Amino acid sequence: MSANPDITEAIGRDMKEIDRWAKNDLPRIVGKEAVDHFRENFNREGFVDNGLHKWPDVKRRDASSPWYGFDYKGEKRTSYAFSRNKKDR
User: Fold this and answer.
1) CB-based contacts of 65-74 (< 8 A; 24+ apart in sequence)
2) CB 48 within 8 A of CB 41
3) Total Cβ atoms within 10 A of residue 74
4) Which of 7, 23, 33, 37 has its CA 20 to 30 A from that of 55?
5) CA atoms of 29 and 37, how far apart (whole Å)
6) C-alpha angle with apex 52: 46 to 58, nearest 5 degrees?
7) Cβ(68)–Cβ(61) under 8 Å?
8) DSSP codes joined into one string, the chain
9) What is the pLDDT of residue 68?
10) Cα–Cα distance between 22 and 56 in angstroms, integer?
11) CB atoms within 10 A of CB 53
12) Over the range 26-48, which residues count as b (16 or more CB within 10 Å of their CB) and which as e?
């Protein structure tokens, strides 16, 4: 029994389309889902896998902790004035 050449050709085209989708589109889709999931964890302040599992409260909010009141500012990471030398660029 011989295979129908039209069906073989159609399957070959579909396989090429699936291969292209798996190489080009799928990584972008999976990456976006991963980033969205990661951000959702932070927005809800806990892990959202199998229900919400809240993270323990940070030490800077506990009045008995030495870290209490610690104010982290991303732009103020040094305790001294910092300036770039224009020649280093």
Assistant:
1) none
2) yes
3) 5
4) 33
5) 12
6) 25
7) yes
8) -PPPHHHHHHHHHHHHHHHHIIIIIHHHHHHHHHHHHHHHHHHHTEE-TTS-EEPPPPGGG-TTSTTTT----TT---SS-----GGG-
9) 78
10) 39
11) 11
12) eeeeeeeeeeeeeeebeeeeeee
Matching residue, tokens 């069906």:
7
Could you give the C-alpha distances from 37 to 26, 28, 32, 40, 43, in angstroms and in order?
16, 14, 9, 5, 10
Residue type, 8: T
Confidence check: pLDDT of 71 > 60: yes
Give the Cβ contact number of residue 60 at 10 Å. Answer: 13
Hey, what amino acid is at 64?
Answer: S
Q: Would you place residue 28 in the very low, low, confident or very high pLDDT band (cuts 50, 70, 90)? A: very high
Q: What is the pLDDT of residues 39-50, one digit of tens each?
A: 888 888 888 778
Query: Looking up tokens 């990584």, which residue turns up?
Result: 27
Is residue 72 scored above 70 in pLDDT?
Answer: no
